């Protein structure tokens, strides 16, 4: 019997810097040097003014839950042992939004506006996924 394997992130030339930072336990985003727009995920140009080469910045990794859902049915067999799990949209304090799993939070404590901190979950091959946990 073959064991189901969770997919790894698709790393491209535009996203390599982000995933390399995650592997070091650092969350990054971009800010346009021309207009100051904050954006995520990484792109080779500003999505507002179209200036080339937005600057990568380090996030403090703190924000608030904007929305969330609880997944009760695994999307593939690889996630069977994880259900139920919570996927949250998090508004980071720097002004961008991240989708991540919410870890270590009892269902009764989950709410819009809950303050969370980004942590990283190591994956095979040296990569790491950003996850969020409630601030203590």
Can you tag this structure with a few keywords?
136 residues, five-stranded antiparallel β-sheet, three-stranded antiparallel β-sheet, globular
Question: What would your notes on this structure say?
Answer:
The protein contains 1 helix and 8 strands; from the N terminus they run αββββββββ. The chain has one helix at residues 16-23, and strands at residues 28-31, 38-39, 55-58, 62-71, 85-92, 97-102, 115-122, 128-134. The chain is globular and about 45 Å long. The model has no long low-confidence stretch (mean pLDDT 94).
Concise overview:
This protein is mostly beta strands. Helix content is 6%, strand content 36%.
SSE layout and pairings?
Elements: H1 16-23, E1 28-31, E2 38-39, E3 55-58, E4 62-71, E5 85-92, E6 97-102, E7 115-122, E8 128-134
Major sheet: arrangement of strands: 6-5-4-7-8
Q: Give the % helix.
A: under 10%
Q: What order do the helices and strands follow?
A: HEEEEEEEE
Main sheet record: 5 strands, antiparallel
Question: What share of the residues does DSSP label as strand, in percent?
Answer: 35-45%
Rg (CA only): 16 Å
Cα distance spanning the termini = 42 Å
Global outline: globular
Unreliable sequence segments: none
In total, the number of strands is: 8
Helix-and-strand structural type: mainly beta
Mean pLDDT: 94
Number of helices: 1
